[in-house]
Amino acid sequence: MKTFRIHLFASLLVLLYSSCRREQHTSWDVDLLGPLAETSLGLENLIADSLLYSNTDEPLSLRFERTLSLFPADSVFRIPDTTFYQTYSFPLAVNLPPGFTLYNINDQIRFDYKNTRITEVILQEGKSIFTLENYLPDKLFFDYSIQQAFLNGNSLHFSGIEVPQGAFAKPHVYNHVSDFSNYWLNLKGDNGNQFNRLRVRLNTTLNPNGQAIPVPGGQMLVAYRNSFVGLKPYYVKGYMGNPVFESNDSINFEFLKKFEGHFEPAEINLSFAIENGIGADFELLVHELSGINSRNNTQLALQHEIIGKRQFIKRARNTATADAPFTSTLANYTLNTQNSNLGALIGMLPDKFAYKARISVNPLGNISSGNDFLYAGSNIKINLKGDIPLRLSANSLQFIDTITTQGYDIKALEQIQSGKFTLLADNGFPFQMQVELTLLDENRQLLRRFFTQDTIEAAPVSNNLVVTTTKRSVIEIPYHELWPEQLQKTRFLVLKCKLSSKPENTVLAIYPAYKLRLQLIGNGIFKIKLN
Amino acid sequence: MRWSLFVCLFFLFGSGAQTIIRASEDSLQKSPVIMRDKPWCQYNAGLFFDLNTTINSTRLPASIPNAFVFKKPISPEQKESALKNLKSKNNTGAIIQGTIAYHWAPPLAWRSKVSQIGISYSFEQYLSTQYSSKLFGLVFQGNAPYAGQTIQIENENIQSIQFQTLKLHYLKNFKSTRLSVALGLALGNNLQQINLDYAQLYTEPDGSFIDMQLKGNMFSSNTQQRPLQHASAGPVFDLAYHYTLQKVQFDFQAENIGFIRWNSQAKTYSPDTSIHFTGIQVQDIFHFSTGETLADSTLENITGKPSQKGAIKALPARLKARLFWQYQAGAGLEFSVSQLFFPGFKLQQRIAWHYELIKTAHNSMAIQLGLSHGGFGKLNSFVSLVPLHTRHHSVRIGTLLNEGWLIPKRLPGNGFVFSYHWTP
Fold this sequence. Notes:
The structure holds two protein chains of two kinds.
Chain A: H1 2-20, E1 26-41, E2 52-53, E3 61-69, H2 73-77, E4 82-89, E5 94-96, E6 101-110, E7 117-134, E8 140-151, E9 154-163, E10 172-179, E11 184-186, E12 197-206, E13 213-215, E14 220-239, E15 244-252, E16 259-265, E17 269-276, E18 282-293, E19 298-301, E20 311-313, E21 317-318, E22 326-327, E23 329-336, H3 342-347, E24 352-361, E25 372-375, E26 380-389, E27 391-404, E28 416-427, E29 431-440, E30 446-450, E31 455-456, E32 471-478, H4 483-489, E33 492-501, E34 508-509, E35 516-530
Antiparallel strand pairs in A: 1-35, 2-3, 3-26, 4-14, 5-13, 6-12, 7-10, 7-11, 7-14, 8-9, 8-11, 8-12, 14-25, 15-24, 16-27, 17-23, 17-26, 18-19, 18-20, 18-24, 21-22, 27-33, 27-34, 28-32, 28-35, 29-30, 29-31, 29-33
Chain B: H1 2-12, E1 46-57, H2 63-69, H3 76-85, E2 90-104, E3 116-131, H4 133-141, E4 150-173, E5 177-203, E6 210-220, E7 232-245, E8 248-262, E9 267-269, E10 272-277, E11 280-281, H5 292-303, E12 307-308, E13 311-314, E14 318-328, E15 331-340, E16 346-359, E17 364-375, E18 379-389, E19 393-400, H6 402-406, E20 414-422
Antiparallel strand pairs in B: 1-2, 1-20, 2-3, 3-4, 4-5, 5-6, 5-7, 6-9, 6-10, 7-8, 8-13, 8-14, 9-12, 14-15, 15-16, 16-17, 17-18, 18-19, 19-20
């Protein structure tokens, strides 16, 4: 009896335990309804704030300003690195007495760059590297000077410099580096009527207190090297020559890549000013300026009087003051929908503007008699200003954006048993929108499309074509059990939104207050699980 | 399966939450039968182990709490049935207690002062909630069925405490009375208190917004519930008195008089907020994340920022008085009242009939049947059995609060008890 009771008791304990182990979670279903997320979209979400401009109660404008420097100043009239090299030897064997003058150079070195004729240079930076190689078995002494290179009124000069003895096989190498920053170089030569010239003097003597040195014929005795490196002018005077620059380039407008289709802006104003900051005349010839839509491979050339017509821009004025040493000359041009085909050009939504142009400096020759000038800050610039009031008529204008993601691991979705999501769209824009959201995996393979048949209705407009109230559209999205897995695999989200003006073919202004408010609402059976 | 299990347990063992089994017709002191919650002054020296659970409610059918205990799904029918049963105010509570103790006679030199010395360790967990049927509906059905309605709820409370005690017991016998005291340390594992003074919820029928008002406070000890991970501690004190007069026995006991000082990791929230919720605000729809951080900040908007500091909280003390009358050999009646000082627990009155079924030279078997009123529930019956009782071993096992076992989909209350006593 005792044994039976113990066994029975043990069996029941096991039974009780096993009955407790069958289910892993306490769970129940709840019917939930409520808002999950909301956002408000304005034009600033699509276009950078820096490009949008508005005054209170006025339509938004798309404004942009770009400055193009046609060339860096030091690429035009920079002084190239220049090296002078000479050696000294006797053809026959000789015996050199103490104090013998070995080497006496008095040369004009020449800085040539294309057909420029530079007479004066003030250097911003640069250096002169002087090297002397002594092959003699006794020390040397030398003097070196550039008399037309001045710093604070003093010319460059050093004398009595000792170079220790070398050997016929292995010379002693002496180096001296002179900082040329702020040096004024007079390049007019000895007579003052030349250009690109700079006289250098070098005198080398053998140790006067040494002994006679026998040297074989043809033996190199001294080698001299003088390099001018990195000479960057602050100011250049002379004749700049007549270089010609051909430019074949493009300007990208990345944000417009997100748009496709066609729209008709009611008004566009584009102005550009050509600023001549160099002391030489130049001529601009714009061969072509085209808008390119790289999404559909279309291109449209600008039609305006500036195209194909030489524009002569006069030289800047040299004021030689510390704050503003020169005054640029300006030439202004205006393009709008009246004097050009700019409307059509912008309407095709180009994401790139390509241009071909030629710039000729001093097209009339040396008419300044060598008084061209250039400062470090001088350049030829084009200041481009655009103002496109956002008054437009859109017909299937499509916004496309691709967002990369690491996937969305939303655990809560797995607890949804059934139900739907509802997107409430309160549209404050007078545009009908057809939205499509596509999920792509890492190989850009389709996972799921949302909103393929749904339309967000346009807000109604008043008689003066202004939106006074928003329009609500309700889009229902039934939940699918594959969502969690598909969202987890998503690597690219492609958002497309097709815009059409309502009323159709009507020019409508976009005001800063126009917003699209989106609200996501969940409604369904959700399983609560307790661990 | 569970029904079969219940029938087996009921008819073979029986149970009783506060059972006293009498199997001896001799004096009470000579009775060898274990009584689970009798005062220390009635224990014989030896090893004692006890485990009991109680889940009871004024209105909530047992199937709902059973789903939590046994980790089972709650069906829509169970929820419907519960909702029908619930009233505007309801009460549900649960107790889990486990105790292991050892006590012995002291050295002879001490016996003039102390008759027995004991040491005990216990693990205790109490859960109690006072709630309206509206809150139950919201939690178990969701807010969608209430869309378009303003749900107002008041004075909803949940409290849960889990702690362990380690006590030293001293017992002194007098001529017809015994007195025992116990002093010890209470080690707190977890304390959660949520008091919702007032809340209001409105869900727009199209789901576009939820309006919510919330006023209340919440205390969270913010500790994990692993039994040996002690967050906090405090002193605890027990007192028991026993008096015998012929065939009548009277006991009084006070347990767990003390407190725990919860450490400085505890957080107190005091929300008094009104929220119009239209969804988590997404600033950049083109580069959004899953929004968990946003969800956290939204939750913090509701609860407010917590203050983090320690707090002293009283333990759920219990007072109990009991009268036992052995009206004939092998049979007796017991009357008791007890009060647990824990929210939702009402004064509990009990009456029980004890009867010795079998008695041999070396063994005996006894049964107890009774009724109780109060506690976390209302009127309940209970039954328990001592199937094994010898000179050295005694086992008691059974269910508690039978209604929840019998008709779990409609009636509240169930539990389980097991105890074992070894005497050298």
